[in-house]
Amino acid sequence: LGLALYAGSLCAVSGATFVYHDYCVIGAGPAGLQAAYFLQQAGRDYIVFERSHAPGSFFALYPRHRKLISINKQYTGKSNSEFNLRHDWNSLLSHDRRLLFRRYSRDFFPNADTMVRYLEDFASLLKLRVQYNTAIIHVTLEENEQAWNGHYFLLTDQDRKNYKCSSLLVAAGMWVPNVVNFPGSEYVEGYETVSINPEDFAGQTVLILGRGNSAFETAENILGVTNFIHMVSRSRVRLSWATHYVGDLRAINNGLLDTYQLKSLDGLLEGDLEDLAIVKDKKGKLHITLRFYLENRNISAGIDSITLPQDELDNFATRAPYDRVIRCLGWKFDFSIYNRSLRMVPGKGNIKKYPQIKPSYESRGTRGLFVLGTASHSVDFRKSAGGFIHGFRYTTRAVHRLLENRHHGVPWPSTVYPITQLTNSIIKRVNEASGLYQMFSVLADIILLRENATAFEYLEEYPIGVLAELEMQTGRKARNGLFVIIMEYGRNFSGADKDVFYYNRAVGEAQHAWQSNFLHPVIYYYKHLPTEREMRLRPPDWPLPRPDAIHHIVEDFLTDWTAPNAHILPLRRFLENCLSTDLRSFFAESCFLFAFTHQKLPPFCQQGYVRMQGLVGSQELRHHAVQAGLLQDYTHTDFSGDRPPDSHDGSQEQLMRDHAIPVHPLQHLVNAKDE
């Protein structure tokens, strides 16, 4: 029957008329709009399909109690826009300064209605090509050797209109409620429909199934009016400040933990929900029992004929009947619209609610199909921020850059610098880059060294999961070694059972930087690009394979890694050791002296002084250099000649012919040179 239906669908498709676009995007939520922005900026042929009449339809309903848990920090003390995005978890990336979320709300935790308005403005002000009221109900493939990926994607909407595209970007989010079926589950109310009026719960006893932010958000709303609230889940509570994962329980919703631990009737229980059963008595009260008590029993016969746990264990925790049971178990991906030919299958274990994708965000089953936004979170689930706006705005940009290289021959954006700027480039990025900061251990800056380490090429925010494919994915060459810069937490600092407030939790000395606990930059050095095998066999919980050298920049309380001694000096020495070169900057006088005492000049002198581009001296700079012991003090010397000593045109000749300079060990070399 399945083969017959599939064949029938192919026949129907073969006779249909299709509207073609290079790129089709399913969903006009934050990820879909972000993808549309990058496609539009690049001048690509694309269309976004949105089932609702406006973008961001998920936020029109969720969260039910309307308070977002994504922070909207108005002030950081800095004007650097890239740095400020580290603390703006709601804005999408664009060139339009009007589309910063802080211009829409001053609330630290904004209202969801504001997000809906923001997304509407983002789509309209940027004139993104979104086709509203279009629900894609079926997606299949059409094999074609001339297509970009060897096939076209064929889409059908609710009105049986057909579309064809070369690349499919799925940004439909996670909106299908997770439902657990057990005896009596028909008495359970869903988070998506339960009342949000606290008065409807006055004087009631409530059981909540689940332990995520939606469960605690629901509890927080009715905490002051219920008799008591119990919460059941198979796993223990995970606090975001302990796990450093923003999807775990946030402090704004954890009032129930107070009332539980401070003996105010509410409580948390652990148990497998599939083992539960609910029995309703004649008064409408809901009794919790276990599934095995109901084996070979007829529930409709009445509660009196059913054995309850308290009949055998009189202090059974949930022996009190409940007035309401609410399901708050989150959402899962909608696989129903994808034909079997696309091989869109769920992940395994704790990521089974997500589709299987590669670290490049491309489907494991179908080339050219990319998953964006919340549904792509399987790549970094419970590790980083890829399931949230402040994370997937950067992964969406990364996917766009991969597509630009694959289909249009546009290499990954990069900048080439002389090697003398290596330390400065790293320090600048780790202090202001928002993509590295938000997508820690997932996105990395890549430094590709040129031959003889005279220059380097800087690539920003590349997915480290496909590091072995860097040359193919970016169009850049890594023939002479590379540095990988990422942000990491300490190896043993994050976890549901971790005490993150213990004494001496912070490291302050550079020599102990490798023991840093809080988020800090880590630099990996590889003489050769890691292979796919090395990536597969990397140590457990390591984001990358073992490098040839590694350097941790010591954590900083202010996340400001600009301290000359604690941060910059150790980094420079690490880079110098890796490259066997001197990365210091020098005054012209020092380069002049090096020219007569060293067989090889430092890169700064080679690329600056020798090309008449050294640091230009001044009286103030020279005075500072003398005080620091960097230069000899010649200010009291009686110079002769036609030019004053501070004149820089011909300064080298002046120094060489002026014999009034006090005798210096190098003077004999200078005289010998003159002769």
Description:
This protein is an alpha/beta fold. The chain folds into four domains: 229 residues, FAD/NAD(P)-binding domain (3-Layer(bba) Sandwich); 145 residues, FAD/NAD(P)-binding domain (3-Layer(bba) Sandwich); 166 residues, no CATH class; 34 residues, no CATH class. The chain is built from 20 helices and 22 strands. Helix 6 links the parallel strand 9 and strand 10.
Please tag this protein with its features:
Auxin_biosynth/cation_transpt, 675 residues, 17% strand, FAD-dependent oxidoreductase domain-containing protein 2, 20 helices, disordered C terminus, 4 domains, flavoprotein, alpha/beta, FAD/NAD(P)-binding domain, single chain
Could you provide a short overview of the structure?
Helix content is about 25%, strand content about 15%. The protein has about 675 residues and is an alpha/beta fold. Interacts with SEL1L. May interact with OS9 and DNAJC10. Interacts with TXNDC16.
Oligomer kind: single chain
Helical/strand content category: alpha/beta
> What percent of residues are in strands?
15-25%
Overall average residue pLDDT: 88
Main β-sheet description: 7 strands, mixed
Secondary structure: helix percent: 25-40%
What's the CATH H-level superfamily name of the largest domain?
Answer: FAD/NAD(P)-binding domain
How many structural domains? 4
Q: What CATH architecture of the largest domain would you give?
A: 3-Layer(bba) Sandwich
How many DSSP E strands? 22
Tally the helices. 20
GO cellular component, one term: endoplasmic reticulum lumen
Function: Probable flavoprotein which may function in endoplasmic reticulum associated degradation (ERAD). May bind non-native proteins in the endoplasmic reticulum and target them to the ubiquitination machinery for subsequent degradation.
GO molecular function, one term: flavin adenine dinucleotide binding
Subunit structure: Interacts with SEL1L. May interact with OS9 and DNAJC10. Interacts with TXNDC16.
